[in-house]
Each structure stands twice: as C-alpha cells, then as structure tokens.
User: Fold this.
Amino acid sequence: MRVAVIDMGRGNLGSVCYALRRLGAEPVVASDPDGLSGCRRWILPGVGAAAPAMASLAERGFVPLLREPPVPLLGICLGMQLLFEFSAEGAAPCLGLIPGRVEPLPSGPGLRIPHMGWNAVQPLIPHPLFAGIDPGRQFYFVHSFAAACGEATIALCEYGMAFSAAVASGRIAGVQFHPERSGSAGAKLLRNFLAEATWS
Amino acid sequence: MLSRRIIPCLDVRAGRVVKGVRFRDHRDMGDILALAQRYRDQGADELVFYDITASPEGRSVDREWVRQVAELLDIPFCVAGGITSVEEARAVLAAGADKISVNTPALRRPDLIDELADAFGSQCVVVGIDSRLRDGTWRVSIDTGDPERSRDLARPTLEWIKEAVERGAGEIVLNCMNADGTRSGYDLEQLSAARRVCRVPLVASGGAGAIEHFIAVFQHADVDAALAASVFHSGQIAIPTLKHSLAKAGVPVRLEEG
Assistant:
C-alpha cells in the first residue's frame, strides 16, 4: 500500500518512512499535492512549531486537501495538533478538522517540559486504531503543547493534566505520541491505521 | 505516569561499539545493529550512540550507520559526536536520529545550542556535559573522547547547565567523570545539585555498577533517565531484571517489552 508522508520541509521524515516499510507499506514523501496521488493513506507527521508548519502546508497547497481528505489521514505529534482549530504555539490558526485548541502543557514541581518519554495511554472508547492494544500501554511522547480532552478524544494521557493522546473523527485521526518510536505498541497502532478493514 | 527511562549508551568507533574505563583502553563490544536490536528487545527505552572519536579528530559522525539504525529501531535514539553546525545536525536528523547531542562544540561556541533549537526545536537538542570536581566545584571538561587532549575548563557545571537550558537545550546528559567507569554508583550529590537547576529532562551518566545504583539515582537525584554502558554490554545487568527491580522499588518504568 502506498502511504503519503506529507513533507512540510521541516526535516525528519525518515523515522516515519522506515516504520511504514517495516510494516510492509510503501511510503511516498509528498512535498506537494501531486505527491498524494495513488496513496491510500495520508500521514501528517511533524516536528517543530505550529505556525511555520501551517505556513508551509498553505504554501505547498495542502490545506484544501487536508480539510476534506479522500483517504484516512493520521496526524502524528505536531501533525495531530495541526488538526485542531488553533494552537497557542505561535498563535497559529490550524486546520480546524477537530474541535478544540492546543495549549502549553502545565509546568510545575516535578513536571519537566518537554514531556519526554514513555507514558501510559488510556483509550476512552473502543476505536479501531487501538484494536488489540491493552489499556495503559506506554507510548513515546515528546511535546510541550497539548489539547485538552474533548468530544473527539479517543484516548488520554496524563502529565500534569489529562490531555488528548489520540483523537478521531470520521477518517481523520491524530496521535500526540510517536507510534514510529513506540516499540511494538506503536507498530500495532500503525498496522491498525493501515488495515483495510479499519476505515472502510 | 511518565516512566523513568533506561538508556544504554553505545560508544561507537569505526562502526563498532566500544567502551573504555575512565575513557581509556577501549574494548570491542560488537556490531552496532546487533547490539541496538538486542537492547530494544530487552526493553531499553532509548539508545544513545556516541562517536567517541568524532569530536577530537574534528570530523563529524559517519551517517551510514545512523540510517541503518533508524531503519531497524522502533524506539528513539540520539546521536552524539562532533556535531558542530546546524548542517551537520540536519544530516544526522535526516538520516533518522530523533535527537542530536552536543558537548565540546557547544562549550567552544555556545550559540550552537540556540541555532540548533531554532532550526529543529528544543526537543531534538540534547546537551551532554562531562563534569568533574576540581577546587571544590564541579567543572566542565572538553575533548574527553581523547585522553591526550581532554582538559578541564574553569566553567562551573551548574552554571553551564542553566545557560544551556536558557539557550534551548531540551535535555541534559550529565556525565560525572569521577564516577565514570568505576561501577561504584552514580554521583548522587552532583546529580541532585544539577536537578535543582535543571528544568528540562536530566539524564544521569557515569558510575552505574549495580541495580541499587539505578534505584538510588531515581529516588535520590530525581533524574528522568539513567544512562549506562559497560554494565549492560558485559551482561552484568540485564535490562528486564533491572526494570523489574525498579518497579518493585516504586520507580515507574515501562515493563511491556523485554
């Protein structure tokens, strides 16, 4: 299966592409909308900050397509945050596919920022993305901003507050953690995203 | 709850993994990919690859093995060694590393930290610090990969930690050189002092020799992660055993793999 990995020009797409190959998929790095053709899944990855990422998506002509994706779309980390209406990181209006806002994680005694490392993810409702993944499995997080739990939240994580670890609405989904760096649990989640039955 | 991380450190020279005692007399420890896979399967939370020859020889890391590691691993890893510019860091990150770590080059030119954080975000930028007690104060050392060139600077370690974080470091690895290679335990006093001034994740390095040392460094120095090399490479401590012992002692760890 060809899977588009959307390139915002901000570097490291390698780990996502390698993870897809390990699962037998064929990653295609898409730097413009033409690159999406023939791909049956889209992944919006991303490291860096929301404002320049949104600017890059707009400049490359991705925004109208992402607002109505014809195939299942998975946002990872920053890519998930961009699915929301707004990010406080650079006061950036985002894609608005998922209701809610992305705000800084609270800091405080014992709460180092960024939230970096393995943390437990609790599914709130049964969802095909988490099929076969035990509640409380740990995934790898690296982020300083997060979205509070809302109507689209399908799994939460806690770090100073409960926040959306995963969201989904129709064929659009996002995960705050890095499934490509989350060992067997992450591989299982990606396999679920790629599975034909999941999103048909 | 966020787990405390266990990080095997693989010192790399000429494409092989080596480890010395007090930075001398390196011994061959085997193939990079085989060891990386083994640690991943045992439940390592992250790996650090440190090209010990890179910085003193004034060259950057060989990126081919970085790409191979990235293809293989499904846990995060960091590459250290001789990264002196944004362009070199970009190449390592593009090869698939999750983080890059800078040590001597950041001390020579502290603006490097700002440049890396601006280019890639703080979450990618680790500052490694080699530190030892001198004149009653912990002070930083440079060029520690080469015994002929290694030297201590006057700069106090705790001040450098604060400056590095201000400049955009997303994580600090503090290698306590008085303890390194001794297997007599982490430097709890220095790491506790570092913890008090470090608001980003702090990784303890140097001195691990027994499971009790790991328990102590998490419980008493409140570090986010503990790095070790020889105790893992030699097989003296198995990561699954270590993690179960930590969990029993009340330290939150990830037990699912391994």
